[in-house]
Amino acid sequence: MRRLAIVIITVILGILAMSGCSPAATATNEPPPDAAELLKQATENILAVNALKIIVDRTGADYVLKTDIGSAIFNRMEAQYVAPNLMQAKAKVTLKQLPVEIEIFARDDDQWWRIVGTNWAKQTFLPGFNPRSLLTQQDRGLRAAFASLENVAYVGDEQLDDGTPVYHLSATADGDKISWMMLYLVQISGQTQIDVYVDKDKKLPQKLTVVQPDTATDKIKPTTWDMEFYDFNVDSNLTPPQGSEATAESTAEVTAESTPEATAEVTTSP
Fold first, then answer.
1. Could you tell me if residue 267 is left (phi over 0), alpha (psi between -120 and 50 degrees) or otherwise beta?
2. Can you give the pLDDT at residue 180?
3. Contact 45/52 with Cβ under 8 angstroms?
4. Which long-range contacts link 184-191 to residues 24+ away (Cβ below 8 Å)?
5. Terminal Cα-to-Cα distance of the chain (whole angstroms)
6. Which run of H or E residues covers position 37?
7. Is the pLDDT of residue 170 over 70?
8. Which of 83, 92, 137, 175 has the fewest CB neighbours in a 10 Å radius?
9. Between residues 261 and 217, the one the model is more confident about
């Protein structure tokens, strides 16, 4: 019996060796990241980029957007930022039960907007908004939004739908302070719950989910905002309004700064 037991143990160890598995190999001693430090690093990295794109999707309770053409339900926004002072965005809204797409272009304090398919109007659409504030100012933009996050905690290592490995963080924040993440086209109020997904390799925020618990009812789920950040330092494809002085040439001068040297300034240390 003793010889048989030795044979069985030997066979089991051989199978484990052939499969490349062992009880010790399945365990990991890698400590979880410091959530606050990781968020700080991700913030500094996104503030160092020269261009990025943002998508904002809303689900749950409606969010009503006040415009010069009436109240509209906000559904989705796609925006593109080019350092230091250009921004273009398209917002899909429901106006008088009809789907409408609004386009906005901003250069510093100058703004143009239109319903897609109509002519541009040089008129302020987002009072007080200046693209320069998105990444460059201490008390506004993404710096202020990320700095407002509280109770930051590490949830775990995960993968996004496209396979990107990320660190999942959770936090809370006052809605008004994180409205900068949505370019202040959407102005959130009340306490919010936030999930932040940071790219494990690039240490850049890839996705955020913001939930407004106070908006829920017995029949409707709370307003939830899903935000994606992508195409960091990718050449822009802005289409400025005629006469805006933000021509393809001026845009190219800005995106030309997105060189490998500039990109290398984004840190990726753990």
1. beta
2. 76
3. no
4. 184/126, 184/128, 184/129, 185/65, 185/74, 185/77, 185/89, 185/91, 185/104, 185/126, 186/56, 186/58, 186/63, 186/65, 186/74, 186/77, 186/225, 188/212, 188/225, 190/214, 190/215
5. 53
6. helix 35-47
7. yes
8. 137
9. 217
With bands split at pLDDT 50, 70 and 90, how would you rate the model's confidence at 267? very low
Least confident of 35-49, 112-126, 173-187, 241-255: 241-255
Q: What is the pTM of this model?
A: 0.77
pLDDT for res 130 = 85
Q: For residue 242, what pLDDT is reported?
A: 82
- Which range, of 19-23, 135-139, 160-164, averages the lowest pLDDT? 19-23
Which residue, 54, 101, 111, 53, is CA-closest to 74? Answer: 101
The answer for residues whose C-beta is within 8 angstroms of residue 47's C-beta and 6 or more apart is 135, 136, 142, 143
Residues in the chain: 270
Mean pLDDT over the full length of the chain: 81
Count of other CB atoms within 10 angstroms of residue 214: 13
What are the CA-CA distances from residue 152 to residues 42, 50, 148, 149, 177 (Å)?
13, 27, 10, 7, 16
- 249 in the Ramachandran plot: left (φ > 0), alpha (ψ -120 to 50) or beta? alpha
Taking residue 154's Cβ as centre, other Cβ atoms within 10 Å add up to: 16
By CB atoms closer than 10 A (0-12, 13-18, 19+), residue 207 is: buried
**Choices 2.50.20.20, 1.10.3720.10, 3.40.720.10, 3.40.50.300: CATH for 32-258:** 2.50.20.20
Helix (H) or strand (E) holding 147: helix 141-147
Quick one: pLDDT at residue 217?
Answer: 94
Contact 83, 256 (CB under 8 A): no
Domain residue spans of the chain = 32-258
